[in-house]
């Protein structure tokens, strides 16, 4: 019985995943994130000589990969299209604007990413760091601890 429950759970997961567009979007996005990460680690350094811009590219690829993994779970959400759509929009707006910022060196593209801070430096969920991978509005760096400040929208500026 234990083996049949594992098999039926695996069948349910396989059926939900194969029939969901979000599973496919997550897989393609994940593959692209790996490709962008490899490009950033190897080819980008011959085109971009600023270490901050290289680090920004790495951050974009990292967040795209994290969102891609989350997209794989979207078919199991109560509202998969809402979850999948929001995660996809997050990848396009956040990572896409960072990739564009690095390739063009036009700060206006970075404004898409940092227009509204998800956490403010005075928040109890934030610790200050001199070199942060998470940049917030007006150039003040912070690092969020856990997911608390990402969902505490009352901490937005």
TrEMBL record:
Membrane topology annotation: Multi-pass membrane protein
Transmembrane stretches, start-end: 29-48, 83-102
Main location: membrane
Subcellular location per the Swiss-Prot or TrEMBL entry: Membrane
Gene Ontology, cellular component aspect: membrane
This protein's record includes keyword Disulfide bond: no
Keywords attached to this entry: Membrane, Transmembrane, Transmembrane helix
UniProt cross-references to Pfam families, sorted A to Z: DUF423
Protein name: DUF423 domain-containing protein
């Amino acid at each position: 019985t234990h083996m049949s429950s594992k098999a039926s759970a695996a069948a349910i997961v396989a059926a939900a995943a194969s029939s969901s567009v979000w599973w496919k979007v997550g897989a393609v996005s994940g593959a692209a994130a790996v490709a962008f990460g490899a490009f950033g680690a190897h080819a980008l350094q011959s085109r971009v000589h600023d270490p901050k811009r290289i680090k920004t590219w790495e951050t974009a690829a990292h967040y795209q990969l994290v969102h891609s993994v989350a997209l794989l779970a979207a078919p199991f959400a109560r509202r998969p299209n809402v979850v999948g759509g929001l995660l996809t929009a997050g990848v396009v707006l956040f990572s896409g604007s960072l990739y564009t910022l690095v390739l063009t060196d036009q700060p206006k593209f970075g404004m898409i990413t940092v227009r509204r801070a998800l956490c403010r430096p005075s928040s109890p969920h934030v610790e200050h760091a001199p070199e942060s991978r998470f940049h917030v509005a007006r150039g003040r760096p912070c690092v969020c601890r856990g997911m608390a400040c990402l969902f505490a929208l009352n901490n937005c500026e």
